[in-house]
Recover the amino acids of this structure.
């Protein structure tokens, strides 16, 4: 994984891949797009014929007063966009948006052509098209598609995992307590969340370990135990598979990022 000193807008035009954005791992495909913050760690893996358009920009490209802005949420609440008065919280934009009507894709293609041809007025036009993409993205955040809630059984599994991730979790024990069929719950969980229960447990544990690596001085072996892994070798394997760096490397990156301000 890597980070950089600018914003990155990436639009997927074809193929598939797994994209890691901080601790979030998403499968991406054509029509998906995302904006990466300053210093935010991200990377691609398991790419299959992946093609994309990348737009790298500084915040002052959108407006001069935004110089020094370091997160997409700050960007949306700054200057030309501040009239939305929308609180996006402290977290980076750790989600992938989807271009439902093709507007963002069309704008990205127009920006690419404009940049390649370098005609008179190229950069003012690029700025306007970028601003339009940001506004369309903001609209999607304010007015998201209606999302079907999880079924009661799957919601119970999610709550069970989120509250007990540090323990030795077995679906059999949960199903016995709730009088569910293991096969039924396994199938429903994968259908509704898009991942297996094992994958979800790993996701939660690695997210929690990232928080501890960044916010505490605990040794890696102790962090592994606190999130449910007694086998440090296995923990290191799972961590590197999901984050593309080892736990120690991740901590070092976080320390360097904090030192850089």
């Amino acid at each position: 994984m890597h980070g950089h000193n600018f914003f990155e807008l990436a639009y997927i035009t074809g193929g598939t891949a797994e994209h890691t954005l901080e601790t979030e791992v998403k499968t991406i495909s054509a029509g998906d797009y995302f904006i990466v913050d300053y210093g935010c760690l991200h990377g691609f893996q398991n790419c299959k014929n992946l093609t994309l358009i990348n737009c790298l920009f500084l915040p002052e490209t959108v407006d001069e007063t935004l110089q020094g802005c370091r997160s997409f949420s700050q960007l949306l609440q700054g200057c030309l966009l501040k009239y939305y008065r929308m609180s996006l919280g402290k977290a980076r934009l750790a989600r992938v948006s989807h271009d439902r009507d093709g507007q963002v894709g069309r704008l990205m293609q127009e920006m690419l052509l404009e940049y390649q041809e370098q005609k008179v007025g190229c950069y003012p036009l690029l700025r306007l098209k970028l601003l339009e993409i940001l506004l369309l993205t903001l609209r999607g955040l304010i007015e998201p598609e209606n999302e079907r809630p999880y079924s009661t059984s799957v919601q119970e599994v999610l709550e069970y995992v989120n509250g007990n991730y540090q323990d030795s979790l077995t679906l059999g024990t949960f199903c016995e307590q709730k009088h569910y069929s293991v096969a039924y719950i396994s199938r429903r969980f994968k259908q509704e969340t898009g991942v297996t229960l094992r994958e979800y447990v790993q996701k939660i544990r690695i997210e929690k370990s990232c928080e501890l690596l960044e916010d505490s001085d605990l040794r890696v072996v102790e962090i592994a135990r606190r999130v449910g892994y007694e086998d440090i070798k296995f923990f290191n394997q799972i961590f590197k598979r999901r984050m593309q760096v080892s736990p120690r490397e991740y901590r070092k990156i976080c320390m360097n990022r904090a030192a850089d301000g």
Q: What stands out?
A: The longest helix spans residues 122-142.
